[in-house]
Amino acid sequence: MSVLSNLEKFETDASTNQRIITLIDKLKEVRRLEREEYLYILNNTSQKELEYLRKSADSIRLENYGTSVYMRGLIEFSNFCTRSCNYCGIRRQNQNIDRYRLDKDTILSCCEEGYNLGYRTFVLQSGEDKYFSDDIICDIVNSIKKKFPDTAVTLSIGEKSKESYQRYFDSGADRYLLRHETASRKLYEHLHPNDMSFDTRMQCLQDLKEIGYQVGCGFMVNSPTQTNEDLVEDLLFIEKLQPHMVGIGPYLSHSETPFSGLESGNLLQTITMVSLVRLILPDVLLPSTTALGTLNSKGREEALKSGANVVMPNLSPTEHREKYEIYENKICTGDEAAHCRGCIETRIIFAGYEVDMSVGHHKTRGINNGMVRS
Ligand code: SAH
Fold first, then answer.
1. What are the binding positions for [4Fe-4S] cluster in this chain (predicted)?
2. Burial of 229 (0-12, 13-18, 19+ CB in 10 A)
3. Where are the domains of the chain?
């Protein structure tokens, strides 16, 4: 077993930055740091300190979740999108893409295949596709919950009104993923066109929390022009929002976007952010993302050893997989669901952890103002 749990084994030497070690210990203890302290860590961490940070994050993850890695079955059900995010390959302006959407029966058969493979959470993700009205989404969610009552449904379909979010929740959706992308207003505006608003994004996350969802925010690491100061904003925002899940992945370039040709993100910096978030939120659900696996063949394993405890293998029909190309060279696009299930399990075990096929709710299970979803 290669679980990095034994902190006693960590030995500092003359080259170790003691201030960073002290700050990591402080974060582990009090779960928050000052802006300048986070910045100091990001500006000065090298390999030795990163090793300590990762071991600390792993020990907190082991305390809270043991070696369990929760499996979520991802269904990318439409790549139509009305938005024009400057980084994203499925943006509306991309003409060089074969658009598809799955109908309800196809989505249900993806769930069935997943259910038979043991999945108990389905994540339904898409571009912002107007075809899927609230009625249609509610019907899909309701049908999944009726057919597979012991599962959780996660939606990741973008910005909607509070009324729409409430309707999906009332139809049985348990969780909602909406990455904030960056908590820096200036960077948000650089990453998005004028018709998208930082305040709306933040309001959506607030609405989702108030309704009682288990809420996931998240951000890209090393997106164009992003600075360490911007990443500190993400950490401060996460301290404040207290989300149940946080999706963190490197920015990856796509040639059919305005950011074409700009450099993709960095593995070590992404892992650093994963570990810091684990220390801020000891019981957060933290995916080891496909983007990390795309950036580096061992990226997902490295994230698991740095505090991540969720993976989201793909259940979408293989014939459509490569059309959901939010970034280029996305991995696993040719693999059948059963193959993905097996492949990820091998990786998880090899990294020293174990697959957990249970529904894997967050510990607080959407507790909000005293209300607990039954
Ligand atoms: N329409 C949904 C789903 C968007 S795709 C929504 O708005 O939530 C899911 C995530 O993929 C995005 O939130 C973004 O963080 C990430 N993503 C998109 N393009 C990317 C790129 N080029 N590199 C890395 N991540 C990207």
1. 81, 85, 88
2. middle
3. 69-264+287-296+309-356
Task: Please give the pLDDT value at position 6.
Answer: 46
Return d(Cα 344, Cα 105) in angstroms, integer: 27
Structure tokens at 260: 């074409």
Q: What distance in Å separates the CA atoms of residue 264 and residue 266, rounded to the nearest whole number?
A: 7
Neighbours of 192 (CB within 10 A): 20
pTM above 0.85, yes or no: yes
Give the residue from 188, 249, 200, 195 showing the smallest Cα distance to 224.
188
Q: Are 280 and 272 in contact (CB under 8 A)?
A: no
Within the chain, residue ranges assigned H as helices are 18-30, 35-44, 47-65, 104-116, 134-147, 162-170, 185-191, 198-211, 228-241, 267-280, 290-295, 299-304, 318-321, 337-350
- Site to probe by mutation for ligand 1, drawn from 83, 157, 179 as the one with most ligand atoms within 8 Å of Cβ, is 179
User: What whole-number distance in Å separates Cα of residue 231 and Cα of residue 234?
Assistant: 5
Q: What is the Å distance from ligand 1's center to 8 Cα?
A: 39
Q: Is 276 exposed, middle or buried (0-12, 13-18, 19+ CB in 10 A)?
A: buried
Q: How many other C-beta atoms are found inside a 10 Å radius of the C-beta of residue 30?
A: 10
Ligand 1 closest atom vs CA 81: 1
User: What tens digit of pLDDT does each residue of 276-319 get?
Assistant: 999 999 999 999 999 999 999 999 999 999 999 999 999 999 99
Beta bridge partners of residue 126, listed in sequence order: 78
Burial class (CB in 10 A: 0-12, 13-18, 19+), 130: exposed
- CATH code: domain 69-264+287-296+309-356 is 3.20.20.70
**What is the Cα Rg of the chain in Å?**
20
